[in-house]
Amino acid sequence: MDLVDRWTALAGKHTRHIGTELNERYGETHRRYHTREHLTAVLDLVDELAGHADDPDVVRLAAWFHDAVYDPERADNEERSARLAARMLADTDLPEADVEQVVRLVELTTTHAPDEDDRNGQVLCDADLAILGAEPGQYAAYAAAVREEYAFVPDEFFQAGRAEVLNGLLALPKLFHTSIAHDRFEERARNNIRTELLLLNA
Predict the structure, then answer these.
(1) Are 113 and 168 in contact (CB under 8 A)?
(2) Residue 35 in contact with residue 72, Cβ under 8 Å?
(3) How many Cα atoms sit within 13 Å of 34 on the Cβ side?
(4) What is the largest CA-CA distance in the chain?
(5) Is the distance from CB of 136 to CB of 192 less than 8 angstroms?
(6) Considering the chain, what percentage of its residues have pLDDT values greater than 70?
């Protein structure tokens, strides 16, 4: 099933134009990591973790929008993605409360710090951060792709900014909140992050 068909299976054939636009956005040429492949990986893991969510379909919708707006030269991509979700979903028959939940979840990917009782947020954040717990080679490819997205930033500034992001992640009490993701990814994610920090500071 291609991505647009996957969207219509979730949101209905009458919303195919939304899925088509989102698919095009994730295919933008300036993206190296935040691509259709990343979206697919997030959607796949949301499916796997669906039993933990209170409303898996709302989480799936949020996954579709979480990187819909991606401009490496701006710091408000999550906020802009959330606004896009609000605007596009307002034209569907999705209940207003669900639209608000999607918007909230997209905004949550700014911090990846869901509350203890936010089961939907935990699933989305775990799926989005799963790359951190990938095998070392896959993680290295991810880190290289992120560097490519920020090719316009000189090395010393990139290294400082990236180190700040990575140290912020290490400072979180836990990176993964669902038991499945925590058991599978937590230890390796922290090892990967520490390794990248060592390389940045080398």
Answers:
(1) no
(2) no
(3) 23
(4) 53
(5) yes
(6) 100
Question: Rounded distance, CA 22 to CA 51, Å?
Answer: 26
Alpha-carbon distance values, 109 to 9, 104, 157, 168 (Å): 24, 9, 23, 14
Query: Which long-range CB contacts under 8 A does 150-159 form with residues at least 24 apart?
Result: 150/72, 152/72, 152/73, 159/200, 159/201
pLDDT in tens, 89-109: 998 999 999 999 999 999 999
CA distance 34 to 161: 18
Which pLDDT does position 1 carry in this prediction?
A: 75
Q: What is the pLDDT of residue 99?
A: 98
Answer whether 68's CB lies under 8 Å from 22's CB. yes
pLDDT tens for each residue of 11-56: 999 999 999 999 999 999 999 999 999 999 999 999 999 999 999 9
d(CA 141, CA 155): 18
Cβ contact 72:165 at 8 Å: no
